Amino acid sequence: MWIDENTSFIVQGLSGRAARFYTRKWLEQGLVIQGGVSPKNGGEKVAGKPIFSSIQEAKKAFSIDASFVFVPKEQFKYAVEEAVQEEIPWIISFTKDVALSDMLDSKKALKNSKSRMIGPSSSGVIFPGMFSAGLMPTTIYQPGSIGIISRSASLGYEAAFQLKKVGLGVSMHLCLGEDPILGEDFLSALPLLLEDTRTKALLILGEGGDAVDLSICNGIESMQKKPIALYIPRRGKLSPKSTESKGLMYHCYEAISSKITERKNPSFLYIEDMQDIGHKLYLLMQTVKEKAP
Amino acid sequence: MHLHSYQAKQLLRNYGISTLRFGVAKTLEELKLLMRSLDLRSVEMELTGKDREKVAAQTRDEAMFLAKKWVENEEKSALFSLVSIQEKMDASPKRQLSLSIDYEKALRKAVFTTPQHAYTWSYYPSSLEKEQIALPEEEKMFIPIVWQLLSFYEEKDGIDLQAEIVLKKGMPFVQDITLFIDERALFRNEELAVFYDPYRYTLQEKIAEQFDIDYTSFSGNIGCMVSGRGLGYALMDSIEAAGGKLSCCINVDKGASKDLLHTGWQVMLSDSSMEKALFYLITERIDCRVLAKDLVDMLKITKVDLPIFVRMEGNYVKDGNLLLEEAGIQTVSSFAESVKKVTKKGGSSVD
Fold first, then answer.
1. What is the ipTM of this complex?
2. What parts of chain A have a pLDDT lower than 70?
3. What structural domains and CATH numbers belong to chain B?
4. Which of A104, A204, A210, A238 has the highest number of chain B CBs within 10 A, making it the mutation to test binding with B?
């Protein structure tokens, strides 16, 4: 099961400002938000939707397919553990800068569970022209047939904008998150786009070549079903404040680019410069059209 | 956060882990007293200021001479000076304990290296039991200190720990340590915040740290403010490919609020190498009209004579751009145009 317009959501951390803002927005767009969870605010309402003290309590009133996690990083692992314990199929976490050991704990909780997690530090997912289960600026996207899967939300926005400029649209943009350890990586999340019938080609946007980006290499063989374009910004490895000085090494960029170019797969397009995304994808889609029966 | 070796040793000592005798002095007089009080004759010194240097001295006089020479050099540039010393051990077989995170497998990883062999354990946090640390008979004396270091690393939210362990009178002691702790976890290790060393950072980095702004400095002349780390990386790539170089990049993805814009801009302006500025902001929560008004107000107050380019995307972008243009601020409408404008020779903002 993946997210669709009938998915029933709950918002963990609904008492926060950002959570209230987006919940109102999602409700206006017709997303099925059943309510929220906030242990301290149980019994209150936001935009007419009830806040429960726990997911367990919410589940007594509604069937829940997915959870949006807006809690502060201090509460992140407890929120994820609760969602996993309550067997919520999809967890989409917007929480940023999660402590690495908390993320390792969350990965442990997710392993062999019935839940899967997008994020943390994700911006969720958008199906342009249909609905958004994320924080994306919807006006940037034009509906179409290119599936975008990115680490950084902003890079995905830029790509969607460039695609629109050349007359192309997006079928789905899934933002995995910028943190160094994530629930879903490229390898595990790609089938969501490969199996999507509206998606005719994929655009993968990495984040400077860390271990999550490296998962692209491991999955290359399974990505042959649809044409794929890939862009990975290099500068991540030169960012002392956010990488080396914190002990996080972004060293995989070269490994990824060499592994990908080694494959010499004509349906795999490696894009060197972000400003070429629109143009290159336009050319790629021309070949897709030519090959179409 | 990368701790100084002496800071990490202080933490180890407070945690009950045996270290070789060590101490810290801020003046030469303190150093002299310290060597006497610790009864140290030959020492290993780590001299810390803006730069760092490790030296060994066979006598107290030699130690004083080396420290004096270094401190004098440091004082000339009015920098903080600090000397940490510890007893010098004769060369003997050392053990190395390396604790890190295996990002690909999302596990913690411990490697204990002896002169003959390396023993590795991969585990989730808090899931490794002392009994699982299986070492051969001749290495068993190291199990207690390895276990202590593992617990310490866990409790302090370590990212990377490299410890050198030596035997002194048959007992294991930590001789040297490199420690990175996870800044994201400081909320539960508040006592570690005191180890933040302002001398390791530039003025801009300190301001950015204080206001929780993601800031990175470079050696070029183009200042960038972006609404996302990935976007910043991509701009750096493309600007460099077009022959330009960034002086800094500020990421305001936590929300391009008026306060954050203003503080970020102050940080950018404090960098005298900046000759052009690019604001590249794609927002959802903030209306482009509001963003434009905030930018106009901010630039009016600071009145800088630099070419400034703004690219916005989001709700009411046309109205926002109009506001900027009416105020005489150059707007750009695409990634490619932004790169072209900021890398244009001569720095003119006028076509």
1. 0.86
2. 209, 219-224, 235-267, 291-293
3. 21-87 (3.30.1490), 95-195 (3.30.470.20), 201-343 (3.40.50.261)
4. A104
